[in-house]
Every structure is written in structure tokens, then in C-alpha cells.
Amino acid sequence: MNALLKELGAIALLLAFAASSRAQSAFLIPVTSTAGVAVSGARVALTCTDTGNGQSGCFGSGPYSTATDSGGNAHFSNVTVGNYTVTVSAAGGLAYSYTYSVTSPTPAFLSKRIYADQQRGADACAKIGAAWSQLAPGTSGIVDATGFAGAQACGSNPFSRIGTKYGELWICGATFQTTASWVIPSYIKIKSCGENIGTPIGGVQAVPGFPSNTPVIQFSTSGTNFGIGVEYFTVNCFNQPGAIGIQNKGGQQGSHATGMMIHNCPGGGLDVETSGAQNSGPYFDNYIVNDSACTNCLTSTVAATFTNLVTFRGVLGLSIVSSTALTNAMAVDTNGTFGNLEFEGEANGLMIGANLATAGVTVQGAYCHNLATCITISNAHASGTGNINIDAIATDATENLLIDRIANTTLTQSGEGNSLGWYHLGGGRPVAVCSSSQNVPCNFGSSGLTTSGSIKAAGVVSAGGKPTGSLSGDLGAARSSSTGAVYLGSDGNCYVFRSSTVAEIPAGCGGFRMLPRFSITDEGQCTMRSGACAPQHLGSTYSEAPKCFADWTGTGTLTGILKVPSTTTTVMPASTVGTDSAQVNWACFGN
Prior knowledge:
Number of strands: 46
Distance between the termini: 124 Å
Structural class: mainly beta
Strand content: 35-45%
Strand order of the largest sheet: 11-13-16-19-22-24-26-28-30-32-35-36
Shape: elongated
Number of helices: 3
Helix content: under 10%
């Protein structure tokens, strides 16, 4: 036997599990050539020579011969305790044999890749579960289910026997037709070899007998979970009543869905909610389709739901196509960033804040085709909904780009030219709104607009909408001049306007209030002779000389500096140049 081993090379036996005299064991034989024997692709057989275990056979149903893989590994499973002859048929037709006894010691080495199709079990899911049991507790590995092909019956959760083990389940091409929800625990990912997600072929499919109102795939809610993932395969609810495609209520950091096709799910395609799923994401490049075969898909079906997540790492790439005019294709009731969205065939694409007060939402890119409304901001919880930023919406055959029920804003496809650059809804009340749309004047709420520089406006700057009859240059909400006005009150009459000849404050306005308890109490006009006006008599009684000022109307000449001396009864505007003949308006205020 030693000579055979030397000629063949080093043969290491890796024992995976043997718990009792009739327990199943699985082991991996890495075969390394040192004598020019071509090992990769060699036929390796395991046959029974002396069962020694009270059984009539070693393996149950066969075959149990296999070719070595590209790494020179031969894989055996469903092997009971007993004595076996290992035969290797290598290059040149040479066959080498030796005897190996399967007992139940603690294995020195464990295989990190278990082939599910070679396990014992009533169906594919039972075999996947058996494969997980081949890993030692607390270790990680790969359960390779790519050997399954076509339709495979599944009557149980393939992770029910996993315990505290971590790793990946590989699937490729087979359709696992399940009557039980797949519940994925912490640090487990399901990955596909990358079949075309554009068609609902392969992956996991609910079939008659699947429980109503249940997720086909759910991230475990037992304890706190991390690192749960599903990548690049199809989840088909197959129109089972109330079935949900993928639900996450328990997977936190590192948990995600990537490149998934979710098909015909009456209870919703992607459901991510509660603080148990906080910090999950991003959910990347997923595709939800409800076609005409989904007769249980109702208008009330919400294809994608994200709610009450506390903190969230967002969505980047989600397409929702439905032959049923869903009232809302996607509902967002949580903070987060949602980008590269596509909606087709629904009544409303994205609904924000319909179920909970929602703040801190950013939408970056949405395309809507054949919808009534692309995005709606609900006022159902208006007092707590705000700070919502929507950027880059484009539509095709969609009536409304955006409806904001809090700010009472509707932006239509025809009014915006098929796209909208940005729309920002602030927090607090009264609400602040600003947009790239010419149909949405920026409103900064109760905080107003503050700037350290100047504000320039070609049109009207007004408080509470454009005043009736206002013209370019007006500041305020009422006017009575053809050259601009400043509104000073609320009765429609108190304004200061400048005409070609005079700056005027209408009578009955109650004075021009500069500071509390100060108002203009006397005013008039005079023309200088030899650089001074005649004394102008004041109509009010003052306890001390009032403060007075003057403004040149443009008539006459003014080459000096204006001065306005006053007494308790008179004011006499004058110039520092004695030859000036300026016409001036004067005004006084005081006690």
C-alpha cells in the first residue's frame, strides 16, 4: 500500500462528519501527483469490501464514482461507518486501490466546499440542509448546489439545520419549487452563477401549498443579524396568494439584495422595514415584474416598501414594471437615498410619507413611463414630513411629474417639458419650498431669506404672492406708480413711490415708521434763493428742535452740501454754496 501511495502521490483523507455507528459521513480526497500521473479528471471510486456495520450496502442509491475536479479533489458523501476500498483510475489505465475505514473520530481537517446534490435527503432543500450539517459549528464554507438542474422540489427551509455556521449557498440554473419559506440566518449569502435575470427562469419559486401572506425569502428575525445577502437569481412568487418576494425585517449591516429579479408577487416584491433592518443596504440593481399572470396582484399591491428603518443605506437601481395599475408602485416611509428608479405601468410611481412622518429623503434620478403621477409627497403626516430632495425626474407618457400635497404643488409633464431638475421641500412650518421649475417660486417659510450681499430681481419681490397690478421694480405687495413702489402697510395704500418729480408718502398712512415711537410728523417742499429756503413753519408742536432731513428733487442747481437746521417751530433747508437754487423735499420727526 505504501508503494502505491508513493507512486500515486500524497493522498489526504478529509473526514467531514460521523456521529454514530450508522451516521452519515462525507469526505474529500485531494489527490496530488508526484509520479507523472494525470490526476485531474481521473476516475475515483469508493466501493464496499467489508461493511462491518450490519448493512447490506455502503451508500444507498448510487452512483458514488466521480471524476476529480480541476483542483484534483474527489468528493464523497452519504457514506456510513464501515470499511471501503478507494480505487483511483489514472493515466495509462492504471488503477490504484487501498482500503479506508470510516469510523467516527474527530476529524483533523474539514472540507470547506460541500456538494449538496451528493447528500442524502428527501428533496433538494433537504440535501442542502444536510450539506450545511457537514460543516463544523462555528466554521464557514460553501454549500455548492450548482449540481441541481431543472425543477427541484423543496418542502423545507434549507437553512433549518445550519446552526452557527457561515458562508455561501451557490445555485445555478435549477428552479427550487418550494412550499416553505427560505429563512436566511446571519452571515449567509445565496449566490447564483449569473443566469439571465431578464426572464423568470431558475432561482426559487413558490408553488401551490406555499403558505399565504408569507415571504418566499426572508432575512432571519431571530436575534440581531448581519451580512445576509441574495445575489443574481430569480424569486418567483408564482401568483401564490399574498406571497412576498424578499422580506427583510431582521438583517442589518451588510445585508442586501443585488441583481435580483422578483416576479409576480401579490404581497409585494421587496419589503424592507422596522429597526431590525436598520443600516441594511444598499439594495442594488433589482427588478420587480408583475405581469398579466399575476391575477392576485391588486391595485393595492405595493411592489417595493421601505418603512421605519431608523437609518438606511439606500436603494441604487430599482425597476418596477406592472401590468396592473398599482396605486403606488413603491412606498417610502423612512430616511435614505433612493437613486436610479424606473416605474412603468402603475398609477403612481413613488409615494413618500403616506404611512409615517418621513424626513431626510433624497431621490436621485427617476424615470416614469405610462403613469398618472411619477412621484407624490403625501400630507397624511404633514407635521413631521419634510427635508425631501428630489433631483432629476424624467417622464414619458406620464401626466404629472410631481405632486406635493404638503406645499400644494403639482408639476405636470406638459408644464415642465418632460423633466424636472430639482425640487426641495424643507422642514418646519410654514414649509420652505424651492425648485428649478419656473412654476414654483422659492418660498423660504418663516425663516425668510437672509444674505450678506445684495439681492437683485428683474421682477417683483413681494410678501405673499405677486401683487395685482405690480410691475418690475416693485418691492412689496401693492403699488400706485409706474416706476416702482415700496409697500409699507397692509391696507393697500401705504407705499413710498418715486415719480419723475417727487418722492411721496400718501396721506393717511400714519407716518413713515423708522423706529418704535419715531414717525415723520412734518414734511414739505421749498426752493432756495441764494443758497437757502425761507423758514418753513412746522405744523406740529415740539418740546425740542426736531430731526430734519432734505432731498433734492433735481430741479434747480445744487453744488454744495445740504443742511437742514431747525427750531421747535421752523425748519430752513440750505446749501453750503450760497448761489444754489435747488428745489428740495424736507421732512422732520421728533418729540
